[in-house]
């Protein structure tokens, strides 16, 4: 009998894993939304919402053998999952890849793609009307947002606020230093080493005055919080021996299992096993999971399979475009500038790659 696998969450992890396994196991991918949201393109879509037509991708053509079931999973156990509408699906293996949430315009808060479109187009209208924009948080999303606005709407006065001493402290210093000078050249005012004392929302843009820890203020027509992701792990909370971190991520063992249920796995942003919350990490986890489930389906034991190894510190690549033409990339051997960053990510934001995965015309 063909082994059954349920994958909960059709984001980067779930969609790619389902596709890679559909000819080997009986695959059911359960996803609450009607379309996949290609997060890296949402930053540019706030500046240019026409991008949404290509970057929100329906699930209809993703699988040809496996099934996509649309619905919200509300509980997980050793033999399967239950959906909000009461539907029960059983399987031999269960992978939880429920991902994470972020700022309201960066990732959808709920299951409605129409509502998410409305949030992005609404924010675009506010951005168009604004003269001054303050972005709170200078991680990848905040820094890219500053770059996209300064490229696409150069008339805006953009302030990027970081609590750290420089951009991307975890990377070689050249990476952050070059990005800072490119942002400055584009007119972005980057403030380092200051915290916002009165941020009104961690997710929703608003207009107002930011009080900074150095006693100064920033008045902005539009304040965009870009303070990071929070993992979506509520359906795992009641599993035996689960350990949920402050970030919402669940601790996993070196076979990517979050609890004492031997056949329940967790991966992608929801899982904390040494990787960052990135598509780059997903790109390492999917091949291991795919190989592992094919081996398990062929009656191999998990103990015979080599455990998963996360990216080693400082080895994971990072592409940071500032609009389509500029930016910096880190690729193991060093830091690369505008040309490489534009060619690999900035120009297309990997949209074509994912449209191909989802069986869509480019
Ligand atoms: C704006 C932005 C830009 C980014 N750019 C990059 C980048 O350029 N490079 C990079 O490496 N990383 C980037 N990231 C990080 C990247 O988006 C995440 O690492 C990635 O989304 C993780 O994939 P995932 O499959 O684990 O989760 P997600 O992509 O979050 O997918 C989870 C899926 O699970 C579904 N789901 C959740 N709960 C349920 C449930 N109960 N029932 C059914 N379905 C459910 C959701 O609807 C969703 O489709 C970016 C993040 C943001 C916010």
TrEMBL record:
Top-level taxonomic group: Bacteria
Similarity field: Belongs to the FAD-dependent oxidoreductase family.
Ranges for domain FAD/NAD(P)-binding: 69-275
Cross-referenced Gene3D superfamilies: 3.50.50.100
Keyword annotations of the record: FAD, Flavoprotein, Oxidoreductase
Organism: Psychrobacter fozii
GO molecular-function term, one example from the UniProt record: flavin adenine dinucleotide binding
GO (cellular component) term, any one: cytoplasm
Coiled coil: none
Lineage: Bacteria, Pseudomonadati, Pseudomonadota, Gammaproteobacteria, Moraxellales
Ranges of residues in domain Pyridine nucleotide-disulphide oxidoreductase N-terminal: 4-47
Pfam family, one: Pyr_redox
InterPro entries in alphabetical order: DHPH_N (IPR039648), FAD/NAD-bd_sf (IPR036188), FAD/NAD-binding_dom (IPR023753)
Name recorded for this polypeptide: NADH dehydrogenase FAD-containing subunit
């Amino acid at each position: 009998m063909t082994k059954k696998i349920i994958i909960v969450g059709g984001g980067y992890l779930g969609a790619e894993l389902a596709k890679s396994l559909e000819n080997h196991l009986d695959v059911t991918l359960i996803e609450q939304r009607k379309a996949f949201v290609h997060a890296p393109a949402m930053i540019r879509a706030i500046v240019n919402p026409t991008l949404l037509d290509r970057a929100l991708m329906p699930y209809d053509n993703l699988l040809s053998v496996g099934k996509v079931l649309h619905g919200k999973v509300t509980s997980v156990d050793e033999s399967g999952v239950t959906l909000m509408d009461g539907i029960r699906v059983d399987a031999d293996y269960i992978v939880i890849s429920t991902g994470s949430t972020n700022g309201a315009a960066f990732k959808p808060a709920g299951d409605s793609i129409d509502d998410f479109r409305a949030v992005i187009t609404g924010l675009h209208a506010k951005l168009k009307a604004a003269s001054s924009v303050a972005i709170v948080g200078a991680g990848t999303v905040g820094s890219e947002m500053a770059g996209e606005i300064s490229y696409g709407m150069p008339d805006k006065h953009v302030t990027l606020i970081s609590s750290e001493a420089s951009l991307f402290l975890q990377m070689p210093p050249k990476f952050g230093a070059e990005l800072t000078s490119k942002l400055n050249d584009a007119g972005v005012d980057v403030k380092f080493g200051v915290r916002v004392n009165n941020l009104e929302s961690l997710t929703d843009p608003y207009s107002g005055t930011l009080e900074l820890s150095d006693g100064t203020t920033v008045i902005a027509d539009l304040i965009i919080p870009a303070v990071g992701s929070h993992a979506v792990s509520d359906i795992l909370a009641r599993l035996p021996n689960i350990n949920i971190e402050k970030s919402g991520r669940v601790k996993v063992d070196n076979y990517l299992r979050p609890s004492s249920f031997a056949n329940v796995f967790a991966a992608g942003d929801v899982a904390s096993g040494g990787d960052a919350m990135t598509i780059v990490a997903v790109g390492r986890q999917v091949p291991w999971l795919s190989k592992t489930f094919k081996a398990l389906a062929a009656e191999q034991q998990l103990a015979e399979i080599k455990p998963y190894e996360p990216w080693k510190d400082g080895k994971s690549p990072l592409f940071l475009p500032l609009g389509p033409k500029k930016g910096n990339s880190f690729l193991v051997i060093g830091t690369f500038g505008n040309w490489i960053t534009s060619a690999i990510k900035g120009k297309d934001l990997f949209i074509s790659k994912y449209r191909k995965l989802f069986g869509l015309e480019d």
